[in-house]
Amino acid sequence: MSESTQDATQSEKKIRQRKRRQGIVVSNKMDKTIVVQIDEKVMHPVYKKYVRKRAKYKAHDETNTARPGDTVQIEECRPLSREKRWRLKNIIERAPVL
Q1: Is residue 75 classed as helix, strand or coil in its secondary structure?
Q2: Conformational region of residue 59, where left means phi above 0, alpha means psi within -120 to 50, and beta covers everything else
Q3: Averaged pLDDT, groups of 10, the chain, 98 residues long
Q4: From 86's CA, which of 6, 33, 43, 76 has a CA 20 to 30 Å away?
Q5: Residue 83 included in any domain
Q6: Strands (E), 1-98
Q7: How many distinct structural domains can be found in the chain?
Q8: CA 93/CA 81 separation, integer angstroms
Q9: How many CB atoms lie within 10 A of CB 76?
Q10: 35 in any annotated domain
Q11: Can you give the pTM of this predicted structure?
Q12: How far is it, in rounded angstroms, from Cα 36 to Cα 19?
């Protein structure tokens, strides 16, 4: 096999990396679904000041293990419903039980 065909087969085998985000669970009231809030600081293009940006994502939690306040990692996946495009990867830190 020549080098050009080897490179082509390796590039075809390369799997796309999925996006991962880390955030805090805000709600788990839906069945097998959690709402994760992700906070990040973004520099304003004109004023060069850091602005806090928040986004909420609905993520699939197959076993209903995440609780509000937990720090979790979510991963991008195929659309599971109208609004769910993320899946719970793992729970990084548990929130204290009150």
Answers
A1: strand
A2: beta
A3: 58 79 97 97 96 97 96 97 96 91
A4: 43
A5: yes
A6: 20-27, 33-43, 50-60, 71-76, 84-93
A7: 1
A8: 27
A9: 16
A10: yes
A11: 0.79
A12: 15
Give the Cα separation of 18 and 87 in Å (integer). Answer: 11
Burial of 80 (0-12, 13-18, 19+ CB in 10 A): middle
Residue 98 forms part of a structural domain: no
Rounded distance between C-alpha atoms, residue 19 and residue 34, angstroms? 18
d(CA 49, CA 96): 34
Asked if residue 64 is part of any domain, the answer here is: yes
Looking at residue 70, its amino acid is: D
Distances 64 to 5, 60, 67, 91 between C-alpha atoms, Å: 47, 9, 8, 12
Alpha helix positions (H), the chain: 3-13
55 is in which domain, residue-wise?
16-93
d(CA 21, CA 37): 10
The token pair that represents 16 in the structure block: 């796309």
